[in-house]
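Model the whole thing, not chain by chain.
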Amino acid sequence: MASTYPKDREMAAYRWGFRIFLVSQCVPFVLIFSDWYMFNGDYVSPWVNHWLGAGEALFDIASGWVAWRALLSIRRGKLMDMVQGFRRAAVLGTVQLILLAYQWGTRFVFPGTRYGEVYYTLTGVSGFYELVGVFIMVAISFRAVRVAFTAEYHWDADAAVYFWIFQLVAGLLVYLLLYWI
Amino acid sequence: MRDMTQAEPRNDPQPKILHMAPIWRGFIWAAAGFIIGDLLTVAVDPFRGNPLVTEPSAVVGWVGALVGWLLGIGGYEEVVLPLFGFPSTWVEPKNWRRYFGLSTSHKVIGIQYLFSSSSIFLVAGLDAMAIRYELMQPSLHFFTYSGQYLAAVGVHGSLMMFGVGTVAMISGLGNYFVPLMIGAKRTVFSRLSGLGHWLLPFGALTLIASPLLGYWDTGWRGYEPLAMQDPGGMVYYYLGIFAMTLSTILTSLNLAATIIFYRTRGMTWARIPLFVWGILTVSLLNLIWQPEIEMTFVMALLSKLVPWNFFDALGSVETYLSMFWLFGHPEVYIIVLPAIAMWNEMIPVMAQKNLFARDWAIIGLIFVMMLSGLVWAHHMFTNMRNSEMFPFAFFTEMISIPTGFSFMAAIGTLWKARLRLTTPSLLILMSLFNFLIGGLTGVYLADPPVNLQVHDTFFVIAHFHYTIIGGMIFTWIASMYYWLPKLSGRMYNETWGMILAVWIFIGFNGTFSQMFLVGLEGMNRWVPAYPPYLKALNYDVSLFAFFLGAGFVGHAIHIIWAWRKGPSAPENPWHAKTLEWLASSPPSEENFPGEVEVVRGFYRYDHDKPSAYIVKDQPESN
Amino acid sequence: MAEALVFAVIWLIAVIVAEIGFHRIQAHSMYYTISNQGHIALNAFNFLSSWLLPIFIFVVLLLIFVLIRFRAPDNSPKPSSVQTMRNKWYILLWVGTSFVLNIVFWLHPTAVDLETMFANWNHEQKQHPLIVNVTARQWEWIFSYPQYGIQQAVNARGQDELELPVGRPVKFFLRSEDPFHRYDVYADVIHSFWIPAFGIKEDVIPGETRTEFLIPQRVASYKTSPLVRVQCAEVCGPGHPYMEAPLYIVKAKQFHTWIAHQKSLQAHGA
């Protein structure tokens, strides 16, 4: 069966198929961003905790950086570096989620206000994508060991990092919209 | 093993011996998931004394049930284990049992979708019969409460839209035939697609069960802020549609990637069959608009649970309306595009005549796809300033132009043809007639002054049933007859097929043409009770509706009979030239005995040369 | 060519017959219309009908023509004798006609009618219109006449009713709110203010005030035609089907008697 589709064509199908999926996943974000604009405009609540927000963004960027480094190492065939990188990225992502959960728990931002509605919607959606991303990063780090990814065969790691970067960009946009713009 | 680029686990898979059918295990795990999710919510609820099932706990329980269901149906062995690098222990049975569990074969998935979608059609159809029975009298006599009737209307609409309209031709026939028609042996994301099917029955059951949580009364559109007032059933409306649209997204992603990347040698863009074009354009629409409605429903769900004020008097009611119709209008083109593509797929075959103006037919599909995102606000003319109506009236009128191209190609092909009058071709001609009426009445609705009168009346109901039943369901049935020899290797009975076709034609036009009149006479929508002067017409409509319902059941029985017991069909009964007819009937596991090489377009009948050859597998053709 | 000619002749005859037939019935083709707004809609409806008839007849006739003339005598798979894939003139005619028709429809009735509506509204604004405040709640229409100090117009049995003088412009202010539960932000939903005989409807949206202008042109009531009624057209909950109110269009003199009667009702705390 494998002979039907030459290897590069099959890879292209996976790659572009996944990219199409990510583009289609932009739509929900476009929607909530425009709702942010409609309902909230450029108002920033004085109650938001800028330190925690900036911390989240930093952890986000750091985990994206670590994940990207991990992908580069598997491209050079260093499997264990990649696995460790993925797990570190997942840990950083989890820390960010914990920060978010803390912010939700303390209700710095009151949910009943207009800003509050938009705040919880935007952080909730991007938090959900991040949760999925953490799950994928952990799962793929296990899979990488068991099936022994190589410099040639590591499509799953590619996909995981694509998704991780996607949620990173979305999360940063959410941060910018909620805390700055 | 399945594909070489994906590195596979090193140890050999130990086949799993399931002690019960995956579908039963799915049910049990789903029940367990629901209970866990529900109890978890109760446990963290800061306020004691709430009932065991509340709106939030029903949502969390539902998510648990969904996870349990997908894992139980085979997702645990086939998806989760490989995700963590363990070998998949999932073994697809070789017999009929494979249709009742997770499958990775696009043909099995296609038949699963066809079966689910037909079952949903039956349930939603019975629902319609109940609605019509109620409307035979001007006051409540069948339903006890007005809310029951409105919930019935909402379930009917949502199931038909998301379980039949966007599914039967796209996920059902699309999954089965698109890979065959482009000469592929499998699809790109076959596991995902196999998992995706099981979202459909889950979503449909959620919707069917929704009245248990209270009669929600918004109809299929879930208009805010009424939805916020509604009882808990509303929550399962959002969740049920969420699951069903997710299923459609997965199918669309898989089919779009398959069409773009797994075309066989010689299947250039210029040679892609029309039905495949239809599915490709629709897939792109699905990938844009289905996530949009999902996010809208998430926001509406949050507004209801928290509650928030996005869409009530404190927020912006019209934002929900716009967000809904931004998806809602492309949705109707999602439903109808594969159907109008299918007309021009079948007519040349039935006439054995070159397809007329093929490029125009395809351009029509593409432009409908592009314009469909620009017309949504014509559903909201009663909400707009005159100046805002202007551009939307313009685009709405313009979209009839590319739709007309499909008519142009069909009519050009039919002119001076030697048309074989078979059941499929008869149904296609009927579909052309019905869709013509649906389209022309759309011109009235595009005109704001007329719209302001007939909006929200039975005129609109008649209009969209003409496009959806008349356009898509008729074509779906036609395609079932057309492809029955391929699906089953058997032939239907031509006499019965014709009788049943005429039957539903009479039933359909009797029902819905009179609905135009009911609407013009002042009957508004969503009413189980209406002024008595409308009774005579409504009584008549209902009689025809029952006749129509019986006709659909007749078609189903006939097709099932032919599938199992019909006379065996020749290899290529219609003398069609598309690739699916190169495969055996029904197609083998690998679809084709070798590589397919396309050498000519599929719509030429002025010569006898074949359009494609099968090249036997060469050992190292990698 | 002969076939095309025969077809064209049949089509032409059918169109002429259908147009004549349509022009005989067109006064009744929509419904009972008694307002200036409604006449705009009715004229647009009739205009569209008479222009769409030839297209409808063209396609339907063609389908019938195909069934009779181009039907294969048997189901053997013989190729058609004509195998045209292109016909410049046919395509040009089809695409051209559909473009022209759609532009025409957009200019008239759409653009022209919207302009007429605008102009009417501006004109009626200056004519000292009768102002009626319409409040929609679940599930009741409440009509008040601020110019006459009437809070809620009701009939002898205390049911809401709407009474309008014939020939005088009316300006409706439409609001969706519950005057008895103002504290509850979740109490208001979308309704739609529809008087079938007036040929226009407008959604009533919580948090917004909408206006609607028109001139009732004939004395009428539910007894004249069942279309003379106020009806909620947007689903607003289980009570939606019952959200109706009677409408009376009366002569000016009778209207003033009615106003006086309403005032006395109000004064006596009815």
